[in-house]
Amino acid sequence: MSQAEQQPFEFGQITIEMVNEQSCLLRFADHIDxxxxxxxxxxxxxxxxxxxxxxxxxxxxxxxxxxxxxxxDQVAICQQIQSLLNNLDMADIKSRVSREIVIPVYYAExxxxxxQEVADHCxxxxxxxxxxxxxxxxxxxxxxFTPGFAFLGNTPEVLHVPRKxxxxxxxxxxxxxxAERQTAVYPGVSPGGWQILGRTPTPLxxxxxxxxxxxxxxxxxxxxxxxxxxxxxxxGQLDGF
Amino acid sequence: MAFNVIKSGVLTLVQDLGRHGYQHLGVTTxxxxxxxxxxxxxxxLSNHANxxxxxxxxxxxxxxxxxxxxxxxxxxxLGATLNNxxxxxxxxxxIKKGDVLTFNQPKLGLRAYLAVKGGLQITPVLGSVATVMRxxxxxxxGKGEKIQKGDILPxxxxxxxxxxxxxxxxxxNYEQQNIPMVMSYQFTTLSGLDRAxxxxxxxxxxxxxxxxxxxLSGEAIQGDKKGIISEGIAYGSIQLPNDGQPxxxxxxxxxxxxxxxxxxxTSFGGGLLAQKKPGDMxxxxxxxxxQAEQERTRKMTQLSQLR
Lengths: 241, 307
Known about the structure:
The complex is a heterodimer of chains A (241) and B (307).
Chain A: E1 15-20, E2 23-27, H1 34-48, E3 53-58, E4 62-67, H2 74-86, H3 90-95, E5 100-107, H4 115-122, H5 126-135, E6 137-143, E7 150-153, E8 168-171, E9 175-179, E10 182-185, E11 190-192, E12 195-199, E13 205-206, E14 212-213, E15 220-225, H6 228-233
Parallel strand pairs in A: 5-15
Antiparallel strand pairs in A: 1-2, 2-4, 3-4, 5-12, 6-7, 6-15, 7-10, 8-11, 9-10, 9-12, 13-14
Helix pairs in contact in A: 4-5
Chain B: E1 2-8, E2 11-15, H1 35-44, E3 53-57, E4 61-65, E5 69-77, E6 81-82, E7 85-86, E8 91-95, E9 100-103, E10 108-116, E11 152-154, E12 178-183, H2 192-200, E13 203-205, E14 213-217, E15 231-232, E16 237-239, E17 247-249, E18 256-257, E19 261-265, H3 267-274, E20 281-287, H4 289-304
Parallel strand pairs in B: 12-20
Antiparallel strand pairs in B: 1-4, 1-11, 2-3, 3-10, 4-9, 5-8, 5-10, 6-7, 6-9, 12-19, 13-14, 13-20, 14-17, 15-18, 16-17, 16-19
GO molecular function (chain A): ATP binding; hydrolase activity
Organism (chain A): Marinomonas pollencensis
Keywords (chain A): ATP-binding, Hydrolase, Nucleotide-binding
């Protein structure tokens, strides 16, 4: 895509700013790309191992860090993070095992009511939409909206569609959807305005298990088309909208 | 041993200091809307700082004790009574078996805290009992439900009781209109006029305010309307949506968002704000980050000096 993608990430370009008395924001870049995402993923992991770090929120170009105020003041936290950054380089990123997660999806009208509309909008057949969506490997750039809702990008340009004019009040659990250049799976029932293509039988979150959420920021994610029989065999539900 | 819930109240929630360490998965923290009131409840009883309490919003709650214990009431004055006798917040009370504790209606502030000796005995989910209804996490059942009539709130019975009261200087003034904040995030992108609007105007708390965010209404702040790449939302973030009416994001806030933010209210300021009712007026008071740190240190020191 852009030239920026080819250039190595410089940890020296990260800025640290305090946003309140117990949180600071690390800004990595002003544009979104995979190199930036790699760097954010690495720094997030390292920071979470640090004593006195309460929470991290990685996003597209930034990382919010909440720390124990009993342990750090603004000067101490900035020094601590800066010294961590000074000891990182791109080789650390390469050595990090990038997870690939494969999510089975039953693409069909009965669970993907926007398939035809998307196909019409993109000037393709439904089969072509399915093929294109499941051929691409996506990157989890951010998690939010609801717990475990991962914003995956980028969809192929020909698949870019706007959100629905009127969001649905109820999108069923496991719905796989697209909007603009992103795709996502709804981890639970929620309102939602994205275009729904199908449904996965795989639970995205399970707070009772050790894995908690299937997708973390930085993961690579791929979708794999399955039949209705496989969907049901894997525990998929056909409940309506 | 337990309290029986005779009347559930408008919005009564089990809370601790919050669900920390899961925001990278999109899980919000929850926790007490008025953090220092909550902290005083546990301090007065010499509980662990994170011991589970009830956050009682507005009132209309009645509990009956099945066993003796010692309680502390802090935060708002909701016209509480113990066996029909009026009692005041910010102190401890001995409870006998059969005692009836009622929170009626707000006299000052909006949210009261009820701490019990040793803390409510509830199983945590993701390390916390904090109730977040939107995420269906925490609380008595673990599924994010508010307290209902007939619920049983377990505690460890004790006849041990120490009469304690919060020092007057440490009790916040809930009539204070100034809400302390620090400038951060996209504050520097505001025009001079917008900055003046933020600090020189009063804003009204609207009815669309809840544990997620306090929506304010007043002179609109223009901003540049461009939106930003979604980023992490810190506690107290003052978000600027397209209509220019600020939203202060509090304990149940979403973890990331793409609206610009003008700064953050401090943890103490957020507690003051959370005691405001729809129609109450506030204004933002600008602190330096140093001042915000000092404010917090002072509040924590007051807690540790309790004897």
